[in-house]
Amino acid sequence: MSVRSLAEIMEEMRKRYKRYPELCRKWRVLAGSDEYGFSDLFFYAPKLGVWQIKGDLKSPYELVGAGARVSARKVDDEIRKLMEKGTPMPFGLISPHPELKDRAIIAAGLGRYQETTKQLKEHLTSRERRVDAELRKRIEKLRHELGLDIAYL
User: Fold this and answer.
1) Domain segments of the chain as ranges
2) Is the pLDDT at 62 greater than 90, yes or no?
3) Cβ–Cβ contacts within 10 Å for residue 104, how many?
4) Which of 43, 45, 47, 118 could form a disulfide with 51 if both were Cys (CB 3.0 to 4.6 A apart)?
5) Average pLDDT along the chain
6) What does the pLDDT look like over 108-132, one tens digit per residue?
């Protein structure tokens, strides 16, 4: 459950998506915000787990983010049901490939949007909730490195 770059998490999910084609239509995506205003994206695949991507927009077209696999255990029906609540929304996420510099990983489809991801996070273990704090710290560090947290005068 280590926090990794957006590219590494996207590649892990891509490999699992391709490896289990019978599950392709069963993947679910939930988007929302955390209590600090960062974007949360949760990807759920039956029997494979839940991944969380946390990010902040660098521009209208670029997300600065990181992610982690937050649930490797058998995901219960309650989490699946939570991910199916909310307003339908199209989503798209493009990430550079972590190893092949001339390739990109694209995830797109129809997901769900909820104002907050708090209800879903309550179903994660305390260890998995600590990952959320690690992700937030990583985003804050990236924002600082990129100069995104500088106030306008």
Assistant:
1) 4-145
2) no
3) 12
4) 43
5) 87
6) 889 999 999 988 888 888 888 889 9
Tokens of 11: 């590649």
pLDDT-based confidence at 152, cuts 50/70/90? low
Beta bridge mates, 32: 40
Closest by CA position to 3, among listed 125, 134, 133, 140: 134
Report the relative pairing of strands 4-5 and 87-96 from DSSP bridges. unpaired
Nearest CA among 106, 103, 102, 108 for reference residue 94: 106
Measured CA to CA, the distance from residue 33 to residue 126 in angstroms comes to: 19
Q: What is the pTM of this model?
A: 0.87
Tally the residues of the chain. Answer: 153
Q: Is the dihedral of CA 107, 99, 54, 76 positive or negative?
A: positive
The string over 19-38, giving b where at least 16 C-beta atoms fall within 10 Å of a residue's C-beta and e elsewhere, is eeeeeeeebbbbbbebeeeb
